[in-house]
Structure formats: structure tokens, C-alpha cells
Amino acid sequence: MNLTPDSKVLIQGITQPIAAYYAARMKTYGTNLVGGVSAGNGGQELYGIPVFDLVEEALSECGFIDTTIIFVEPYSVLDAALEAIDAGISQIVVVTRGVPPLDMVRLLRTAEVTGTLIIGPNSSGIIVPGKVLLGTQESDFYTPGVVGLISRTSALTYEVALALNQAQIGQSIGVNLGSDPIVGSSFRQWLDLLAIDKTTKVIVLVDQTGGSSEEATAEYIAKTINKPVVVYIAGYSTPEDKQLGDPSSIIAAQLSGPVTITTTSQHKVELYKQAKVPVAERPSQIPKLVKKLLKKS
């Protein structure tokens, strides 16, 4: 992923009230918003951003577009994303929450074939501090620097970014993968991307309780990633039978009783420790671990 102030960005569903609000914030931040899409509203302008009826019309007018941000209703996300993929847009941020799981399965199959990067759904997006804002990230919590921040939960991402800033450690990028049960990209995928990013010197990974899809991440970091990584698992002190991270975990717990050991944060922490990946018990510990790793590197 190569995001610069010149990267062309499209917003699908731009006339949605929340999309319009964040479009203004993104443009003010410096994001190169070249157009928006809203069927039936083509020919209008919103904050100086031209609105088109179709993605194809936007490309005809604006040329190649790097990224699209989707704000449409949940049951329209699949159609919007497939329209973007058909138009050759290779990076998609889905802000909308509650996308039907079967729609996400179909979308991810198409994305795999076409090599499209999907972030979300239910994602606050991506920020390259001082350069590009894609989505609903709160830019006030970030400053330019060398720490790549990857998280599944937006609010906790801000807490970690603030702790780093207070320790005078800036961020190279902040990525919120999304907190719906099925999301487009994984920790491993973003670890690979940040491993080759020249600006990023240390990677901070913020996981949460519930689910076991990321358990292989610890071994993957130890064997594959050549940059230092710090991990924080939210909910470390939560009792094991209360550790529920998403709706699918809650349903599973209601049907079958307490969450099994493989879904607890304590178990995840042990896996990282066994792989010799530093783990912070609290967000406030992250800056100290980062500084230590920066000195070593």
C-alpha cells in the first residue's frame, strides 16, 4: 500500500449525513478527495467535491483512483464494493457496520481473485499522520513518526496513539481493521505491509478478547517479520468466562457455555510470550517497550 497526499480517493455514499461530515474532515486534513458517488445525485457538489451517479463515471472524469471509502447502508455494501472492484480500484475501506456475513464471504472471494485490499467493515479506516486521512479516524490523536499501529478496535487505537504521543513517539500509520465478525484484512496481512514500509521502524499490534483467528500471528511474527513488534491484548484481566470480543463469540457462549481457553486473552498473551514477542499489560506500558526496541534497532 502506497498512500501519499497525491493518492486519489473516492467516497461511495457521500450524501449520507455521516459520510458528508467526514468528507469535510478528510478534505481539510489534506486527503485528495476527487469525487463522491451517490445514485440520483450526480452533477452536484459537496464541499467542492463532485458527485457522480456511478463509480465508472467518476473514473471517466477523474482518471485512475487509488482508494474508495464506503459509507452506504449494510445491504448495499457488497454492490458498492463490487462496483469499485470492477472499476479497477484496488483499495477499499468499508466504514459501514453490520454487513451481512454472506455478503462479506462473497466480497472476500472476489477480492482474493482480483488482489483487492479490503479494510473493514466497521472500520474507522487508515491515517498516515500529517498526510492522508481515510475514514473516520480521529486525527488529533496522531503525530508523524515511526510506529505502525494496527488494531481491531478504534477507541483503543486512539488511547495507544495518545500514550505514544505523550512519550514523544509519533506514528507512521494507524490502521483499524474493523470489528465486525468477518473483516477483509488480517493482522498478518498488515504485518507484511509494514515490514516493507521504509518509514515504519516498530509495529504495535492491538488485539482483543474473543475469537481465535489471530492465534497463528505470534509464530508468524517470530518467524517472518524482521521488524520489532509490540503486542497489547485488550481484556487481559477479564475473567475467562466473560471474555467475549464480538457478536459471534457472544452467540457461541450463550449456546455452549463459557468461552474455551483458546479464545481468552491470557492464552493469546502466552502464545506471544512463547514466541518472544513483547507484550504490554496496559496501554501505558507500550511507549516504554517501543523506546526499548527502537534503541536496540
Tell me the span between the first and last alpha carbons.
Answer: 24 Å
For this structure, what is the CATH class of the largest domain?
Alpha Beta
CATH superfamily of the largest domain: Succinyl-CoA synthetase domains
Please estimate the helix content.
25-40%
Structural class: alpha/beta
How would you summarize what this structure contains?
With 297 residues, this protein is of the alpha/beta class. The protein is built from 10 helices and 14 strands. It has 2 domains: 8-119, NAD(P)-binding Rossmann-like Domain (Rossmann fold), CATH 3.40.50; 138-296, Rossmann fold.
Structural key phrases:
Rossmann fold; seven-stranded mixed sheet; alpha/beta; single chain
Describe this structure in words.
This protein is an alpha/beta fold and 297 residues long. It folds into two domains: 8-119, Rossmann fold (3-Layer(aba) Sandwich), CATH 3.40.50; 138-296, Rossmann fold (3-Layer(aba) Sandwich), CATH 3.40.50.261. 36% of the residues lie in helices and 21% in strands. It has a seven-stranded mixed sheet with strand order 3-4-2-1-5-6-7, sandwiched between helices. Strands 9-8-11-10-12-13-14 form a seven-stranded mixed sheet, sandwiched between helices. Helix 3 packs parallel to helix 4. It is globular, with a radius of gyration of 19 Å. Residues 2-99 form the CoA-binding domain. Pfam families: CoA_binding, Ligase_CoA. One of its GO terms (cellular component) is succinate-CoA ligase complex (ADP-forming). Keywords: Ligase, Nucleotide-binding.
